[in-house]
Amino acid sequence: MLFFNYLYWHYVIAPVEIVKLLKNYSIATSRKFLIFGHLKTLFYPWHRLRVSDVAKPKNITDRVANVAVEAYIRLVAAIIRMTVVLFGVTVQITILFLFIVIFLAWLMWPALVFISLAKGITIIF
Questions:
Q1: Has the keyword Transmembrane helix been applied to this entry (predicted)?
Q2: What is the C-alpha to C-alpha distance for residues 18 and 24, in angstroms, rounded to an integer?
Q3: Per-residue pLDDT tens over the stretch 1-33
Q4: Is 25 in contact with 95 (CB distance < 8 Å)?
Q5: Residue-number span of the structural domain to which 95 is assigned
Q6: Which of 22, 76, 85, 118 lies 20 to 30 Å (CA to CA) from residue 31?
Q7: What's the total number of domains in the chain?
Q8: In this structure, how many other beta carbons lie within 10 angstroms of the beta carbon of residue 76?
Q9: What is the rounded CA–CA span in Å between residue 76 and residue 67?
């Protein structure tokens, strides 16, 4: 009876918990890297930094310079945010791959034990 309880736990209960762990790790990773938040604010100024807040334009040349600098700030912010998003997605894919490997190893573990025992017995006899 204990053996059947173990098999039930191993093949029914534990795989569901492993999938729940994968879900939790995925949520934590996306929150850690703020993937969706960075995508929403991709072209926003970096830390709300605006040149027009620092130096008030006095003439048309200053306004053109402010627009150019603000565009540059937004471009730099987009590059930084996209780098963070790409790194976060890479971590997500790595976690998914590792969980697939762990999940498959978990499912094959009892069979591996029985095969190893059978092989060991055949080597002894």
A1: yes
A2: 10
A3: 898 999 899 999 999 999 999 999 999 999 999
A4: yes
A5: 2-124
A6: 76
A7: 1
A8: 13
A9: 14
